[in-house]
Amino acid sequence: MGVTTTANKMKRTGIKDLQRPIIISGPCSAETEEQVMQTAKDLHATGKVDMLRAGIWKPRTRPNSFEGIGEKGLDWLVAAGEETGLPVITEVANTKHVERCLKKGFDRLWIGARTTVNPFAVQEIADALKGTRVEVLVKNPINPDLNLWIGAIERFQNVGLDDVHAIHRGFSSVMSRKYRNDPMWEIPIALKRTFPEIKMICDPSHITGKRDLIFDVSQKAMDLIYDGLMIESHPDPDNAWSDAAQQVTPLKLKEILDRLIIRKEFPEGVKVAEDLSDLRLKINDIDYELIRLIAQRMVVAEEIGQYKKEHNITILQPNRWAEIKRLQLENAERQGLSSKFVSKFLEAIHQESIRHQTAIMNKG
Ligand code: PEP
Ligand code: MN
């Protein structure tokens, strides 16, 4: 948190200057002045936290739940930042929020998942930030739409903001029973491919929705080379006014962070390329073989397609498809492969076979 003087304008340390893992923590919502100050002091005392977060305006699914403490919470955050030296960050969802934060000297803001889904809202916020040097962290949209996330980041970049980063908080899904939000790791990985220079922060609190699962998701994020973590913390999590089940005490946060193993992509003194070259050649050979076999399978599928065409048989034959799945899921179990993975793999192959057979049907 900084008052924007000419001096700190020139050499502000931003998220991009921080060491991995960058740790952002603090309550889901600011509730009282004491709660914000206590959390900040306890987090600072861990020696492991880089930034203090708290929601002031809370986008809630239904009205009549706690919708945030409002503007006065900004002063509490500023005070806690000044007391501990921790930079502070809060969520904005409209231009009024932006104006109030700018007035209080905030130079870091995050965009919530319910805002990222709306290009009009994102554009208005971006326009309100034009000409500032505010650092913006963009949470993924609620729905698993990579382009919506990319688009929101571009809107901030397009108004000239240099420090735009991403927070992965998972996606609403009817499928995920284990987690509150399905992580769908492939989406943030694809985002990072689009913007290699941005920092990717994982939010295991909103992914899991349960404090006991935070460690595992944090470790996974670190092993996927995420730059940091945003974890909700509260002095008395069970009595938090929002997201009680997923918050941890600052002490518990320290335990989680102490247990994490921070592996590196290229550790110093280790000749990764040399040590792994034999195994990597083996993997390449196996992949070539896999692709060759799949191509061979398509040739056979086309021959079957030709037969179906000549005898007016439908391309899809649900019983045959069910038999293929049953046989290969049994096989997968014997081979120690997960049925979820093998199902997805078979579905993809089946789709491709149908595409080949459709081409045969439509020929001539
Ligand atoms: C939050 O960080 O408290 C929050 C509201 O998150 P999200 O936008 O990810 O739901
Ligand atoms: Mn929350």
Keywords:
eight-stranded parallel β-barrel, 2 domains, binds manganese (II) ion, 51% helix, elongated, binds phosphoenolpyruvate, Chorismate Mutase Domain, subunit A, alpha/beta, disordered N terminus, TIM Barrel, 364 residues
The total count of strands amounts to 8
- When the domains are counted, the total is 2
Q: Can you say what the CATH homologous superfamily of the largest domain is?
A: Aldolase class I
What low-confidence regions span 5 or more consecutive residues with pLDDT below 50? 1-10
Structural class: alpha/beta
Bound molecules: phosphoenolpyruvate, manganese (II) ion
By DSSP (H or I, 4+ residues per run), the number of helices equals 14
CATH domain topology of the largest domain = TIM Barrel
- Mean pLDDT comes to 95
**Mass-distribution shape:** elongated
What does this structure look like?
The relative contact order is 0.10. Helices cover 51% and strands 10% of the residues. An 8-stranded parallel β-barrel has the order 1-2-3-4-5-6-7-8, surrounded by 5 helices. Helix 13 runs antiparallel to helix 14 (339-362). Strand 2, helix 3 (72-84) and strand 3 (88-92) form a beta-alpha-beta unit. It has 2 domains: 6-259, Aldolase class I (TIM Barrel), CATH 3.20.20; 270-362, Chorismate Mutase Domain, subunit A (Up-down Bundle). It contains 14 helices and 8 strands. The chain is an alpha/beta fold. Phosphoenolpyruvate (PEP) binds next to helix 5.
